[in-house]
Amino acid sequence: MRSSSHVLPLGVLTALLLSQVCSGIKWLSISHAPASLHINQTQHCKLLPGMVSSQAQLCRSNLELMQTIVTAAREVKKTCQKTFSDMRWNCSSIDIPIDAPKYRPDLERGTREAAFVYALSAATISHTIARACTTGDLRQCTCGPIPAQIPEPGYRWGGCADNLQYGLIMGSKFSDAPMKMKRAGSHANKLMHLHNSEVGRQALRDALVMKCKCHGVSGSCSIRTCWRGLQDLREIAMDLKIKYLSATKVVHRPLGTRKQLVPKDIDIRPVRDNELVYLQSSSDFCTQSEKLGSIGTQDRQCNKTSLGSDSCDLMCCGRGYNPYTEKLVERCHCKYHWCCYVTCKKCERIVERYVCK
């Protein structure tokens, strides 16, 4: 008779299957790894939650890289929440619990919110790796290559360029791994996530700009040493937020010889490479709904004088708002003393704030 000691309970088996099906960005839960954890042994990979088998294999063969990926996961969460702090959906769902078998509904249903998170995650992991090459935190890569074109007179190539090419290669290898598994959800969702991840990486390529440092007698800047460097992640996130606001709803239907994602309302053209796409319409995020993944906007702070998305009218969905006062203690009456320090006094002021009913 076959022993039952090795048979997994149905609930555990279901959770394991769901974690494989719905794990496209579950790797972000490695942001919960203890800050004291230094990944320098292969067994440390077992302490990082949310990874599929190919990601775990990449961890074991690139231990030094994983420390950077953990940093990237934390950066995704922080950047997403900051970028959407003025909107009803404030990216709270990105804080994926370690033991959750699947995402929160707003990230699982193929919404425009999921589109943004996948794009930002792909951009952030490659950005963090590229920067780590520059700072010397990764020994397996160096500065980016010197551009082939000859600079203008008064300019010269130098410094240490961000190694975007290495960041893109290793970042995509890790972040796209879950979508390339056999159990990666529906074909439509897989195509959507892979497309939006590539949009994130394209935004990163567009963010590679020339940065220069001046040299010369008495700051004359007669010579500028220049290199290719990435813009800050918050600027890339704002670019992706604009794409989020103009995202295209798509359907999965035959186009040519195979099924592809095509715009729902204007399906005479294929999806553009630089546009975020989504399959399901979102909640308005006004009220709490476990089913839709909305935490609502009750008790959210709003701006009474704003005309934007953080205004009390829009943030509170017409329910009204309550005022309260807050005492702020700030530095004031600062005075510079020769040489070389500044002294300040502390001033108190009362400010009025507003929260949604």
UniProtKB/TrEMBL annotation:
Any one Gene Ontology molecular-function term assigned to this protein's record: frizzled binding
Lipoprotein found in the keyword field: yes
Keywords from the UniProt entry: Developmental protein, Disulfide bond, Extracellular matrix, Glycoprotein, Lipoprotein, Secreted, Signal, Wnt signaling pathway
One GO biological process term: canonical Wnt signaling pathway
Family annotation (Gene3D superfamilies): 3.30.2460.20
A Pfam family annotated for this UniProt entry: wnt
Signal sequence interval, chain numbering: 1-24
A cellular-component GO term for this protein: extracellular space
Keyword Ubl conjugation: no
UniProt cross-references to InterPro entries, sorted A to Z: Wnt, Wnt_C, Wnt_CS
Localisation per UniProt entry: Secreted, Extracellular space, Extracellular matrix
Principal location listed in the UniProt entry: secreted
Main function: Ligand for members of the frizzled family of seven transmembrane receptors.
Family per similarity comment: Belongs to the Wnt family.
Protein name from the UniProt record: Protein Wnt
